[in-house]
Write a structure and sequence with these properties.
Blueprint (H helix, E strand, L loop, with lengths): L2 H9 L3 H5 L2 H10 L4 H10 L12 H7 L4 H19 L1
Length: 88
């Protein structure tokens, strides 16, 4: 599934359909990292230079990049754990 198709499904609230494919899950996970600082954290964690990518294009850029599901999951967990520690 290409980025535009995944984005369209998301915009049409077809989350269940997205969640049933690995490409759709990748989109949803990356979408959960929608803030710029979170995207920058992901880029830093995989040594990816995003300095020339416009903020609104970051999601598409990451989606089209070969980032492992394991790495995306790891970054999400790290960010979640960090937020949780701050709330304590």
């Amino acid at each position: 599934m290409n980025f535009n198709k995944a984005k369209k499904k998301f915009e049409n609230n077809k989350i269940r359909e997205l969640s049933q494919t690995s490409a759709g899950l990748k989109f949803l996970k990356l979408r959960s990292l929608s803030r710029k600082d979170q995207m920058e954290y992901l880029a830093d964690s995989i040594d990816l230079d995003i300095s020339n990518i416009k903020t609104r294009k970051l999601l598409e850029y990451f989606y089209n990049n070969e980032i492992s599901d394991t790495k995306i999951n790891s970054v999400i967990r790290e960010l979640y754990d960090s937020k949780r520690r701050l709330r304590r």
